[in-house]
Amino acid sequence: MVAAALAGGWTVVLAVLLQAVGWSVEQLQVAAGWDRQAWLWPALSLATAVAVGLPALLLALLPRSPRVRATGRGWLGAALALIALGSLWALPQVHHELYLAALAGTATLLALLTTRLSGPPATATASPPATTTTPPAAADRARRPRAVTLLAIAAGLALLLPWVRFGALGGLLETVLAALAATAVGLLAGALLGDRFWSPFTGDGPPRAARTVLVGGLVAGVVLLLVVAGAGHSGAQLPALLFVPPVGFVLGACQVAARRAGAPAGSAPVRWLVGLAVFGPLALTDPEEISILLATTRDVPYWVAVASGVGLAVAVVLAIGYGVLLGRPRGRTPSRLVAASSAAVLLLTVGVVDVAAGQPGLYGERLLVVLREQADLSGIPAGTPGRAGRDARTAEVYRRLVATAERTQGALRRDLTRLRLDPTPYYLVNAIETDGGPAVRAWLSARPEVARVLVSQRLRPLPAPAPVSGGDRPAPTGPEWNIRMLGADRVWAELGVTGSGVVIGSSDSGVDGTHPTLAAGFRGGDDSWYDPWDHTRSPTDSGGHGTHTTASAVGRDGIGVAPGAQWVGCVNLDRNLGSPAHYLDCLQFMLAPFPAGGDPFTDGRPERAPDVLTNSWGCPPVEGCDPGALRPATAALTAAGILVVAAAGNTGPDCGSVVDPPAPYPDVLTVGAVGRDRAVTEFSSRGPAPGGAAKPDLVAPGAEILSAMPGGGYAAEDGTSMATPQVAGVVALMWSANPALVGDLDRTRSILRDTAQPAGPADLSCGPVAASTGAGLVDAYAAVRAARR
């Protein structure tokens, strides 16, 4: 018994610890921009099963006590199941539906195998003689759910309530597959915790209630811990580790009540209770969103933690309540009518909570279908120098892109519309976003006109809006240190250039258009703001990232490099996550702005395109992008004479860490970060880019950069995100000083490189400085003087 207690404690600590460590390591990989290691979770699951299974095997074979042997068998079976379930995490999170289908199939097979190997319970009730006939009324009663099963259903619905309140469903197929997976996990738990498991704890005579509830419930809780450790993609299984194991005591109380009624409970209570409990995190959370990328505000990780805490409280109350009401030696089991009424009331409560206080509806991922044929943009004439020539090129690029999309998308768009898959066409990349799961994706991938199909992530709604990110720093009293390092203040004072006449486009989390440092710089009109996420009609920002970066480019009062330039904005990040389609929404808007509610294909105004784009974001695989997802988009913008400036990323100091589009693309001006000491920061991503290209192209100040935040405040932030808009601001100064340079991207790049100052790299382990840390630190004063020549 002592050995069993020690083994149980070892099992709980080890399983929880390894699950937490595995998720943390995977999240660090995401944050660092490393490739996901598919072997991590199978290896951890195998390690857990070996470390737990060995003592469980000894307990199953060596002791004489039937209860200890039953304990060992239960833990060993659950540990072996964890190996199979944990191996499914090798599937990428972005393919969640495929994972749920695999979980449903694997758990069902394990349940069937476990049932077959277990055999009948040791105290199985003898079958009636063959000559005995059962009256029809009795047979009908036998087919009805027993009271203990109905009470287990009620308990499962109670555990589902927090997830209905704080979570949100995915798509229809995803929800159906989650239900099948939860059912299969319930079947597996029922096979492991059937009558054979409970028989040694209840005995042959009158049930020993305390032993069944406390000891049997504790052992069953450890079994459930191991089962749910493998039920849910990386991150989604963590909540279940908290609130499912306590229901072992509920199951023990159900066993006491059933035995008191004269027959074992069977596996039905286990199947229903566990299945309903795990359906919550499986169906009402997206494992991609249980991420440290969203952990800085009240986003999905926060609400998952809240649901888990409430679920734990509910589980504890259920364990105590069921133990007191059902688990007493002379307790009274509620009638079937009372039990059915309880289950019905809780089912109704789940529905009411979902509609009245939850997030009803379906919020599945969409697909981005990239077509094989992309527009031919070769041979576009340069035209006259300056804005007139740039505008002519932009108009011709827009015309060719739209014509190619209209000519090649027709058949596919008709088929998708006929299937009610809600297609949204794009022209900047010849692509269509549409609804659809794995089956639709396979069908689309097989079509001859389709190059590939990407998952376009869709965030699920929150139970309450995330708080607006404000700032706690005072307003600046003069040019900030980064402005002085670049020499932008000298450009204003000595050369009289502030960026007037140039428009910078910001694609980010949004912009607080009422901020004192930004309000005067907004271009205005009906085509200077676009929000494809929430469809706001005026510049707004709750995340703060976009306000901060835009102000570093054009903000007044000493924080922006080009305070005389104007800005236009677009929201491509919602709660710090994007998707290939929404990145395209904003880049497409920047090529040919259109009024609110307009059609990008017919209402675009290429003559209103901004001159320079600042992009402090990247599209990693977790958001659905592959390396070439946005390549046609930046190529088209470059052909139009619009300079695309992008952040290198914050995954340094690893070599070759400039990987997420659009930073690695050769036609993008990629920016790294330096600190006050002019040395490349530790976090700034290093080159070379895939293929060996030297990246980043330039570096700029990116540590402790003071800039604007929503609500009129200020804050200091770190990142290549902060460095990028400053380079866009320098380009605005150059083009304001010499309007003939507008659209001349080759000469602009050459001037920036030739006038850059040496930057001190943190290390040279990635090869030559030009390949690993950029050509140098941008010099605004020298660049503007060279632009005037």
UniProtKB/TrEMBL annotation:
The active site is at D508, H545, S721. SUPFAM superfamilies: Subtilisin-like. The keyword Transmembrane applies. The chain crosses the membrane at residues 38-62, 74-92, 98-115, 147-166, 172-193, 213-232, 302-325, 337-357. GO terms for biological process: proteolysis. The keyword tRNA processing does not apply. Residues 120-139 are annotated as: Disordered. PROSITE patterns: SUBTILASE, SUBTILASE_SER. Residues 499-759 form the Peptidase S8/S53 domain. Gene3D superfamilies: Peptidase S8/S53 domain. One of its GO terms (molecular function) is serine-type endopeptidase activity. Keywords: Hydrolase, Membrane, Protease, Serine protease, Transmembrane, Transmembrane helix. InterPro entries: Peptidase_S8/S53_dom, Peptidase_S8/S53_dom_sf, Peptidase_S8/S53_subtilisin, Peptidase_S8_Ser-AS, Peptidase_S8_subtilisin-rel. PANTHER family: CELL WALL-ASSOCIATED PROTEASE, SUBTILISIN-RELATED. Belongs to the peptidase S8 family. This is Subtilase family protein. It comes from Micromonospora matsumotoense.
